[in-house]
Amino acid sequence: MASFDLINYSLRPNKAIQRAIAFECATQAIQRCEIGPLVYVGLGSIWFGDFHSAHKHLNIKKLVSIEADEIGYKRAVFNRPFKCVDVREGLTTDVLPELSREALYSGQPWFSWLDYDYEANESVLEDLTQAPEIFPSSSLFFITVNSLPRKYGTPAQRVDRLKDLFGDVVPDDLGREDVKDTNFIYTLGGLIHSYIRSRSVSCGRPGKYVPICTLPYRDGAPMLTVGGVFAKPGMTAALREILADEEWPGFPDVQIATPPLTIKESVTLQAQLPRKRPLTRASLRRLGFDLADEQIASFEKFYRYYPHFAQITG
To answer: Residues 277, 155: one domain?
Structure first.
C-alpha cells in the first residue's frame, strides 16, 4: 500500500519542523552562494508540501515530482498545486537521468529532495551513486530515509549491512556501539554524506560536496534527512563560513521529537521562551500540565518552527 494511503502528510508537526529547517538551510546556502535560478526535483506524492515551499519561498518556477505508483501518479497530476509542476511517472533511478538529458532542466542547478518513506536500501544507493554524475553544478541534494535501527538488521547484523550498502566509506573500526539506538541515526547520516562525497570524487566532479544539514526527527518512526551542495570551485569557502555560525540550524544536537500539542499548550510554552535556564517538568507542572523530558527539550530547541494545525468546519 502506498504511503499516501496510510498517512496524512500535511498533519505532522515534526515533519513540518524538519522541512522548515531544511528549507532555511537551503535558502541561506542559495542566497550566500548566489545559486539560481533553480529546478526543484522531488517526490511530491499527492500532498506536495515541499513543493509549496520551493515555489512560494524560493520562487522556483520549474518543479518536477516523480511518482512510481500508478494510482498515485494520477492523483498527483490531479492534486498538483501549481501549473509549473511537471509530474513524471516512474522510478527515480530512471527519471533522474532522463531529466538530466532534457534541455529544459539540464541547463540550471537543481534543488533535489528525495523524500523516501523507507530505509536506505539498494535502490536508494543507486540514486546516491548517480546523483554526483548527473546533477548540474551548484545543485543541492537532500534525501530522507527511515532510520529505525531494526530496519537495518539486528545489532549484530547492522555493521555488515552498512558495509554492504556503503562499501569502503564505512570505517574499519565501526562497532556495535556506533549502531545502537540514537548513535545509529548519526552514524547513518555521516555515512550517507561520506558516500556522496566519495562518489563526487570518484566520478571526477569539479568542486566538492559540502554537507549542510543532518536532521533526525521522529515521525511515527525515526527518520533522517541529510542535505548538501555540489559546490562548484570557489563556492566552498562561502559555505564553510555560514556553516561555522554557531546559530546554524542544520546540525541539531537533539532529535526533532516535539509532542503533538494543543494550541493552548504550545502558546503557553512559547510564552516561556527563549530563556536562560532550560524548561523542566517541574516548571511545566506549575504551568498546569506535563510532558516527558525528551519532549520538553525538543520543543524548547525547535519552538520557532513548531506549526499550528486547526480544524475548519463549515
So the answer is: no
